[in-house]
Amino acid sequence: MARRIILFIHSTLNGVVTGDPDGDKTDFSGWTRPGNVVGEASESLLRLFDRVDTVLLGRATYDDLSRKWPTMQAATEPVDVVSRLAAKINGATKLVATRDDQVAQLPWGECAPAEPLGGDLAERLQRIRAGEGGDVVIFGSPTLVRSLMEADLIDELHIVVHPVVVEVGERLFSGVETRTDLTLESATTFSEGGVLLAYGRAVA
After folding, report:
1. Count of structural domains within the chain
2. pTM for the predicted model, two decimal places
């Protein structure tokens, strides 16, 4: 069975998925509202790792997450969702889409380094998707997501929609010209008004 490439991303109601471009674009917490949408969404992401063994990142998202996730695995009692998710993410194979063909590996704390994916990204991901192993998840990385949507390489989209509209930030599908038909597979409502929408490819 072919591996699936899965997008998991947080979004505002009007499709913004990044922080303020004048600050830290990778930090979307500036528009999350007080509550537990992020925590409940993290539980859903953790369940995805029952079938995911590889994380795919754009370079900017890698630079951000590689500073954060290796420090989040401290043992606590009871072990919270962040610690459990950190263990899964830190232990997963990590692939980074980067144009820097001079790097051989990218550090990830004390865990195995991430592997840079250079060259023809679409061709490499086609081979990965056809190979052995678990599914592949993409966090954030809107520039990478748009490229993969254009190349028809995303099999599932899991979008956590927060109940907020913001003025600034990067919209997920801005500039995507290729039409993609999807099927709603599930909609999970969270206690603070957020919703997780899971889409798969529409069957022709």
Report:
1. 1
2. 0.91
